[in-house]
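Appendix C: a fully annotated inverse folding record. The material below is reproduced so that readers can follow the format used throughout the book. The structure is listed first as tokens, followed by the designed sequence.
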């Protein structure tokens, strides 16, 4: 998970204080992951134990991934599975797949339409 976090920070350049939300999985609760968040000046938020609704966006992603990409596939190696996940996210899920929660836009289109800075006081 630390490598994935480093990759995300490299590609996305998040602002200091960005909140990284996750479940209570051991990889997210580990000292190494928390240290990496601190190094990147990111804040951690964890869902309540046993409440899948707190992490609904990720639950929805995994459902989509399993039904659209993984169903009936057998990966020969861990590396092949990793490549397929990356390809699905980078080539389809983020740039093309429409999301009802984003007014039927792709995540990339939605993000590009967002203001570059959001005043928290507006919410």
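Designed amino acids, in order:
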């Amino acid at each position: 998970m630390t490598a994935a976090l480093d990759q995300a920070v490299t590609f996305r350049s998040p602002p200091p204080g960005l909140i990284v939300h996750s479940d209570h999985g051991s990889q997210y609760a580990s000292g190494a992951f928390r240290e990496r968040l601190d190094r990147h000046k990111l804040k951690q938020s964890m869902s309540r134990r046993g409440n899948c609704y707190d992490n609904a966006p990720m639950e929805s992603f995994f459902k989509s991934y399993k039904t659209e990409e993984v169903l009936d596939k057998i990966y020969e190696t861990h590396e092949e599975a990793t490549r397929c996940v990356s390809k699905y996210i980078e080539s389809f899920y983020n740039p093309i797949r429409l999301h009802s929660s984003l007014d039927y836009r792709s995540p990339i289109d939605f993000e590009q339409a967002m203001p570059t800075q959001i005043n928290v006081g507006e919410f």
